[in-house]
Specification:
alpha+beta, Elongation Factor Tu (Ef-tu), domain 3, 2 domains, 8-stranded mixed β-sheet, 6-stranded antiparallel β-sheet, 8 helices, binds zinc ion
Length: about 350
Amino acid sequence: MTVKPDFSIFNTLTQLPGISGREQAVRDYLKELLTPVADWVRTDALGNLICFKKGTSDKNLLLCAHMDEVGLLVHFIDESGFLRFITVGGIDPRTLLAQRVRVQTQNGPLLGIIGTKPAHITTEAERGKAVALQDLFIDVGLSAQEVKKQVHVGDFAVLDRPYEEFGNGLICAKAIDNRAGVFIQTEVFKQLQNPFYNVYAVFTVQEEVGVRGATTAAFGIDSDVCLCLDTTGAADIPGIAPQDQIVRLCGGVGISILDARTITPRPLFDALTQMCDKQHIAWQVRIAQRGGNDAAAVHLSKTGVPSCALSLPTRNIHSNVEVCAKQDVQAMIDLTYNCAMQGIVF
Ligand SMILES: [Zn+2]
């Protein structure tokens, strides 16, 4: 049985601001959406949202998807009113030039434009060089005096990009990492009727700065198995050798064997791929020598939890033009749903 996703919810999720440590808008939205379909919902001290649904067995499945996104933090305002910033989570400065942001002030968001010294006045030595973070600034279009009133050091700035569908079933937006995982977990949780497992659907905080939320969430739950729902970089782009592409767009759900932080137990990996084959769900192997996700924290919690990252192939990851494919989203929903309903035999 497949679950038809409501992509308008994905659209809404990508547009909410939720930089690491400032996930409240995403959490509030999910709480309202999922409280009516959950047995109970609670928020822990760090801000993780935990939604529970009782199953027909005594086994516990931990699903986790991080709510936070990478973004910027204003750390200095100069005498002309331009904002200087640091990144929260890993962002390549090359992707920030000439982009738009929404500065999250106490009185609401302000549009900001990221600028640098224009080509016309760069020196010979500067020309053609990659731009460094300290050479970039945010212009909110206000006088220095107005900026001082409205913007404060410590305000966060989210990348700004509308959700757009394009090409053959592709989606471009900011924060696909990891509102895609959040969306998949939401759609699955909504559809669960008498699942095999007691399902703890945890929407975690602060993954992008070192899997912090998942560490405390996993501590509080006795899990028999964990599926971590996240994105992974699809390097199926020009200039990358096939063996270095990690996963490919439209190749199905990525089932992780290894990343820098977690190795999936062989029996769990086999059970997941067999489930895909039985249910005719497209899947591909994910091997990522760099990076990690919430599974890194969960599999080392308590006395250890068998864990696997289900990974959505995403191009241009950690930029504001992240791209994923609807058919991969569907495959990941189908696998997660069937695992929760039927149980994973491993
Ligand atoms: Zn992620």
